[in-house]
Amino acid sequence: MLNPTADNTLGRYLLFLGDTVEPGYAKTAFGLRDWAGERCVGELALPAATVSTGLTPMTARQAHDLGATALVIGVAAPGGMIPEAWVPALLEALEAGLDLVSGMHVKLAQLPPLREAAGRLGRRLIDIRTPPADIPVASGVKRPGRRLLTVGTDCALGKKYTALALTRALRARGVAVDFRASGQTGILIAGGGMPIDAVVADFVAGAAEMLSPAAAPDHLDVIEGQGSLFHPAYAGVSLGLLHGSQPDLFVVCHDPGRSHILGFPAKPLPTIEAVIAQTVALGRVTNPDIACAGVALNTSAMTPEAAQAEIDALSQRLGLPVADPIRGGAAFERLLDACLANQEQA
Asked: Which parts of the sequence belong to the D-glutamate N-acetyltransferase-like N-terminal domain (predicted)?
């Protein structure tokens, strides 16, 4: 699996926000701020950007002087491309002494100005979204160990945060648990993982098997989900990850304030009930015992009172534990209890 730590790519970061105006497209920047904040020196945005992580704005030179070793592209452009308007700022970062780290589909070295400057200056162009070359076709054979997968009603609404929060909380309870990163942000946070959406389609399930290998019977892997089974563009990635990870449990992640698929205003968000039913039906292909442990809500845009009311109403409606993992509290403890109860029943 990809291991940035082995290549010393994990240093101190300047987060690049480009000209982004949609917070949902800046999830890499926000994820690094929230889960690897000690490595984030500041942020750099172009004048047209309206999104901010709240970190100190600074130039590449200032970041370098404060100990930054790399500029990380913290936003996603449509199609995973690097817009031409970003190139001058990326060149300035190279000139200032920073390596470039990208999770975009296009490789940094494919842009001649960046390739030439990096070669001339002795800087590194590091592409996180590069899967290993030896991924096998999935076996479909059930392997030892326990697995929990976060799934979603949509993209960019909390699957990574939920997986990280569950891992941290379960570890605090003494559970043998590991977070398994399946996207560029998670890989940067964890120091390793599998960029699942960069894998050739025939090998996605096999890559998921590699991501979460056989383990001791009492060991739990919490696997970061990708996309949504209902997403018109990314459902194929979600399905391959579901089949290959063979989860015993899954947690549905949902944003109560979202009405449609991000970037697809004509596509209404599926219900949580529909996501549970679809995940169970498709997940049984590789794990007949798959079960929903509960629901994780992203209530970051709600008041504490409104969030609690939403959590209580949804839990009553579904008959399942519902919580916002970032808010924590008694509701989150009940979700953790459900994860452990399911584990103990195995």
From this structure: 61-131
- 195 closest CA partner among 180, 215, 177: 180
**In the 8-state DSSP scheme, what is residue 4?**
G
pTM: 0.90
Euclidean distance between CA atoms 22 and 26, whole angstroms: 7
CATH number at residue 15: 3.40.50.720
Query: Do residues 304 and 164 both lie within one domain?
Result: yes
Q: Which helix (H) or strand (E) holds 149?
A: strand 146-152
Q: Are residues 105 and 174 in the same domain?
A: no
* 198-220 pLDDT per residue, tens: 999 999 999 999 999 999 999 99
Report the DSSP beta bridge partners of residue 307: none
Closest to 65 (Cα-Cα) out of 133, 14, 24, 135: 14
The last residue of a domain, from among 94, 127, 160: 127
Check residue 10 and give its pLDDT: 55
Give the whole-angstrom CA distance, residue 243 versus residue 116.
42
Do 50 and 25 contact (CB within 8 A), yes or no?
A: no
Residue 99: domain span? 4-127
- Cα→Cα distances 302→29, 51, 90, 103, 327, Å: 22, 19, 36, 30, 11
